[in-house]
Amino acid sequence: KQKEAQSELMAAWKEMDNAWKQRNKEQREAYHDELHLWQVERALAKQEGHHSSQKKPKLGKLEAAAPKPGGESADGGAADGHNGGNEEESDEGMQTDGGSDDD
After folding, report:
1. pLDDT of residue 98
2. Taking the CA of residue 49 as centre, how many other CA atoms within 13 Å lie in the half-sphere pointing to its CB?
3. Tell me: the pLDDT tens digits for 12-28?
4. Nearest alpha-carbon partner for 14 in 62, 66, 73
5. Rounded to the nearest 5 degrees, what angle is found at the Cα of 24, between the Cα atoms of 61 and 31?
6. Which of 2, 20, 21, 36 is the most buried (most CB within 10 A)?
7. What is the chain's mean pLDDT, rounded?
8. Would you say 62 and 24 are in contact if contact means Cβ atoms under 8 Å apart?
9. What pLDDT was estimated at residue 9?
């Protein structure tokens, strides 16, 4: 039962993910079309000996992906093997350069 619910969630997420990829792909394609037009105009302006009147187009921020469903696994831990804490990383960040701050 839980597996069926998870597979339904994954199917819905895959649809959303594919739609997200398509929207970002369309945004990139539109950007590349604008960029090509800008490059043509810039080359023409260079040839005529003056600066282009337009600024180079920017891609802009792409839409972020939706998080993949998974949440908690059957043993109560997170599905990806982490417990949500940063024990290893936090210990690393607490280290100093050898105690030279005691001077």
Report:
1. 56
2. 0
3. 999 999 999 999 999 99
4. 66
5. 70
6. 20
7. 79
8. yes
9. 92
